[in-house]
Amino acid sequence: MTNSLRLAASAVAIAAALVGSAHAQAPKPHVFTAKDMASLDRLSDPRVSPDGRYVLYSVRTVDYPANKASMSLWIADLKAKIAPRRLKISDGGASNGRWSADGKSIYFTSGRAGGTDQVFRTDVAGEAATQITSTPFDVQAYKVAPNGKTIVVGMAVFPDCADLACTEARLAAKTATKATGVVFDRLFVRHWDTWNDGTKNHLFAYTLDANGVATGQPVDLMKGFDGDSPTKPFGGDEDFVFTPEGDAVAFAAKVAGKDESWSTNYDFWYAKLDGSGKIDNRTEANKAWDSAPAPSPDGKFAVYRAMTRPGFEADRFRIMIRDRATKIDHELAPDWDRSADAVAWSPDGKTVYATAYEMGQSKLFAFDVKTGKVKALTGEGHVTAFDVGPTGIVYASDSLTSPSELFFLPTKGPAVKVASVSAEALKDVAWGQPEQFTFKGWNDEEVHAYVVKPSNFDPAKKYPVAFIVHGGPQSSFANSWSYRWNPEIYANAGYAVVMVDFHGSTGYGQKFTDAISQHWGDRPLEDLQKGWAAALAKYPFLDADRACALGASYGGYMINWIAGNWNQPWKCLVTHDGVFDTRMMGYSTEELWFSEWENGGTPWQPNTTYETFNPVNHVAAWSKPHLIIQGQLDYRIPLEQGLGAFSALQRKGVPSKLLYFPNENHWVLKAQNSVQWHKEVLDWLDQWTGNTRPGK
Predict the structure, then answer these.
(1) Does residue 341 belong to any structural domain of this protein?
(2) Distance (Å, rounded) from C-alpha 290 to C-alpha 282?
(3) What torsion do the CA atoms of 124, 130, 132, 133 make, to the nearest 10 degrees?
(4) Most buried residue, 40, 599, 607, 680, by most Cβ within 10 Å?
(5) CB under 8 Å to 278, separation ≥6 — which residues?
């Protein structure tokens, strides 16, 4: 719940696919299965060398029989037309590759040294590695100062400890005792998929000696700070940055205090590398979410992202420019009604780049710093990451029909593909072709949706339908690849797929996103109903009599809501980690700010919507076969929500199953669990739609 410009030929091909085709594809032999998807290599985290010649990137490789994944580093030469190569140092596991300021060295993290993740250094050849840190705890994230004299690392420590030895001793004492009780006096008690052990992520500065190795006792840059940087649960090195002067870091964090679980007041802070002076809050005036800044190349300005409404995690992230001398901020392109993700400067400081969702795509945008003029640099697809070099931008992009691939967009000219780690494995797959359509939804406003045709589509046939509702709810399925809810799995199993970006989805303006808050069960439901009717009218191959509705998180909530309020069209339903009792969700989820904003207050306050749109109040109308899926480690939507829904179904005598994962959180991440998940879901759909699955 709670987070292109391609080769010309590629752009034309994808555009044609999205428009659709009246002709059936020539049959291809390979059926794309959940095991195929779970076994794919995954490309991520591109980093351009300072001279712009090379791009370093990570590849995740799955050992399916062992149910494990390993990380490796690869390098592509943007100048020479040669195949990318895997660095030999990856044999011990390597991730988070980062260039030194002079481009001569590559830093990375690895667990090869005694089981804890440490920082190592290699060169462009990547044959041998030197260990840089030897910390007692895992290095969660790191950055090396441009002058090469300091490394800052993130580690989990007890914030009231004076040094690392204190944390070591306290952890050892916990391990030694046979008593297992834990006392809490504030929230978070648990967050995402872990229980609070009392530690906080803090940043530490180590001096690098003449050999570039961390030496001496580190400086706790957040000494006594009651908060986390890197932020939890998904923060990384994007949460902190060296100042241009090289004597301090700026980091993003939220003071925990007593209100951590219902506050979204992240700020960016300033701390001296030598530990002197006060840790200074540089965005104290804004009580909403502020991200870490990125200094301009000349050091005069900094760009960061900021929300304006406290307590709301899905407010629009505005792009802010700060004059570092005057401390005055102004918003860049205030009329640009999109929410910015990652931001970065051009080498000359005249342009700021950012990614954002727009109309069912996720694009890379360029902003003129002087005028605020905005230009989209990419088109169809989903830009997942990018890095700016002296001669252009390297970015990773995926789509509904392609996992992430690497592209280089030069300063002048079209983008070119740099690397793909899955093209060979997928060359014989018949993709179900996606097509975007629009219709009039709630309030007679335009709503976007996708239909994905079955693979090897025959226009003369009618196909069963998987009607998938996205989670978030402030998110979007978009033209993007997913390893959890991938419509191509259903398309290759003989289903057509319908996905509606209902009110509340991102990429259509903040007003559209805001429309779902305190309206979980009416406005989005109206969009889904009208979207289903529009799809049936537009696409005659959809078999309305053989359709099932599926969703996870908020999508799971909506399936539970549909079960009691709109179950007529569906042969079956699938709820994954979905809200069953909205009121109890408000008491038991970890990030209370979410339920409180979405329902207009706390569960005990009057005039809220906890009961207005509560699925548990409509169980009497539940009658359609229903598969419930739940992870034990899901603290966002706790286990009891799934158990409650399954108990209701069983007590009513409704055909139902419970798929329970004792070792998964809000997502199903382990390869073999993912395959089992898809088998159970597809078997359930086949059972109730009468579908004969290709290759089954």
Answers:
(1) yes
(2) 10
(3) 130
(4) 599
(5) none
Q: Return the closest-CA partner of residue 452 out of 548, 384, 541.
A: 541
With contact defined as beta carbons under 8 Å apart, do 116 and 162 qualify?
no
- The pLDDT of residue 4 is 32
Mean pLDDT (whole number) for 124-152: 97
Positions annotated as catalytic residues are 553, 634, 666
User: Measured in Å, how far apart are the chain's first and last C-alpha atoms?
Assistant: 33
Alpha carbons 509 and 339: distance in angstroms, whole number? 8
Beta carbons of 645 and 202 less than 8 angstroms apart: no
Q: What distance in Å separates the CA atoms of residue 261 and residue 468, rounded to the nearest whole number?
A: 30
Q: 544-572: per-residue pLDDT in tens? A: 999 999 999 999 999 999 999 999 999 99
Q: Which 3-state string (H, E, C) describes 652-667?
A: HCCCEEEEEECCCCCC
Range of the domain at 60: 4-91+380-421
Phi, psi of 679 (to 5 degrees): -60, -45
Q: 24: how many CB neighbours lie within 10 A of its CB?
A: 13
- When the pLDDT of each residue in the chain is averaged and rounded to a whole number, the result is 95
Nearest alpha carbon to residue 566 among 617, 651, 623: 623
User: Which token pair is 562?
Assistant: 């549909």
Coil/strand/helix, residue 661? strand
Tell me the torsion sign for CA atoms 689, 576, 564, 541. negative
Token pair, residue 126, equals 């990547």
